[in-house]
Amino acid sequence: MTTLTVDAHREALLRAIDQRRHYEFLMLAEPYLATCPDDHYVRLMSIRAYLALGLVVPARQALEASAVAGSLSPELESLRPKLAAIDAPPSNWDDLAPQFNANLTALNARGVDTAPIRDSWQRRRSRYLLYRDTNDVPQVHRQADDDRWSWFPSLRNHPQATASEPLPKSLSEAMPLPIMFDGVGEGLLFERAYHATLDTLVGYSCALLIVEPDAADFAVALHLRDWHNLLADQRLFFFIGDDWKTHLERHWIDQPNIPLPVHALSIGPRSQGPDQAALVSLVEGAHHDRESRIRQSLSRLETLYASHTMADRARRFTEALNGTGPPLRILAATSCHTTFLQHSMRDAQRALTAIGCDCRVYKEKTHYDILSPLVYHDVIRGFKPDLFFVLDHLRSSFS
Prior knowledge:
The chain has helices at 3-18, 22-35, 40-52, 56-61, 74-77, 79-84, 97-109, 115-124, 158-164, 188-196, 215-224, 244-254, 274-306, 310-322, 340-354, 373-383; strands spanning 128-132, 138-143, 149-152, 179-182, 208-212, 236-240, 263-266, 329-333, 358-362, 387-390. α2 packs antiparallel against α3 and α8 packs across α11 (215-224). It is of the alpha/beta class. It has 16 helices and 10 strands. It is 48% helix and 12% strand.
């Protein structure tokens, strides 16, 4: 840090501690003390803030030799035996094992391979310490590969902070596009977004994509949150572990009816820096690839129909209507996210079939689909319709 940055950071620290905003102070103090380990006053205030939140073990860690540069002040040195005498161990993850196992069972039922999650957790659980602070809020302290400890995903009153955290404005729309979660942290923001996007228009619920390269991080949420019902929802897609990128790229190719996300909520250690930039670049690349495939597909389709002259069409209709040729092929489209139009299209299909037409109605197959041009093109190429029929109905909810 430059001197100016350090001074400004320290002023923010002092304001937070004066106002007894312990969570905010400690989140500011952690990177500050890593840069300025000899600031004994801020270290003392950190220990007091930890104790005010009932976090005794992190208060002890603030006095460890690895955290302190040089010798301690007499006041700090005198705290060592006092902190050592306080019996306040971390919570036991095993107490949450039944909830963890129930969530894994729900994922298994969805066809998700949970072995990497369980294996990663067994290998690395000692790097995650769980506490309950004086507000009865679970706090997770995570040890990184360089042995530094940091709060995962942050130290705060998670229920209170999550309830006031703004969600993307698009979630208030009738049919919001999918959301990607770059990690779920302790899971509260994901849970809130899940419920906010449930049944927003006649059964429509947008897809939610969870990307978590570190399977052990995802295991934290599976311990803390009872999701065994939520995880059964087919609109949730999981990309967990080292090969997340390969599976995500394959998903976007195999699922053209699921729009690409326009929002990525980053929760955790990758919320800034090159990892997040790489994820944004990956989504942008998928957008360009899908647009390119749509243009190529449309060009092939237009070439197919361009060979049909007006005389060909007149002959086709005449033969179909007088019974000397196969019936007219009519492709109709509606949506499962409407009631009136589905009934109207059902009546239209019956009427067209009654006069000898081969009428097929196409609509979404799931409650999270939005029909893609690529899928329309595939249906048209297979059926080769003479007419396309759609009931266009304007909704006041769509500007």
